[in-house]
Amino acid sequence: MAIDYTEVNGHKWEAMSAEHFVGIMSHVGFVGDPLVHTQHHIGASKWEKVSDEEAVGYHQLRAAYQRYTASDRRLVENIGHGHAMIKQFYRRIDGEWKLQGLRPTIRWNEFEAERIFRGFDGSSIR
Predict the structure, then answer these.
(1) For the residues 84-104, what does the mean pLDDT come to?
(2) What is the distance between the alpha carbons of residues 78 and 76, in angstroms, rounded to a whole number?
(3) By C-alpha distance, which of 68, 51, 62 is closest to 106?
(4) Phi and psi for 18 in degrees, rounded to 5?
(5) Measured torsion, CA atoms of residues 60, 39, 16, 22, in degrees rounded to the nearest 10
(6) How far apart, in whole angstroms, are the C-alpha atoms of residue 2 and residue 87?
(7) 3-class secondary structure, 101
């Protein structure tokens, strides 16, 4: 998979396994943080068939985030909303469509979206 999160957290990977991608998403410095709740909504979508084996999806995305001060989730520390377009690349492998890459383009963020995630050194996640 090719993951370009340059606009999200400054990281870009030319090639990685699906397991590596799941590791990044579930990392405590990112979406796997137990003090963070997030919900992503897909709005309008457009699909482009590149070939019988490749397709590209363009998706409108709105993400809501809340960071809590403690695991009891009683007090909200920060909230944030992100508005983006995400380009996803798909390839048909053995008759099934598989995600092969993605590149979000952030349109704007609201509130304190930049203070939600604590970050990580993406190169160290395997």
Answers:
(1) 95
(2) 6
(3) 62
(4) -60, -35
(5) -160
(6) 11
(7) strand
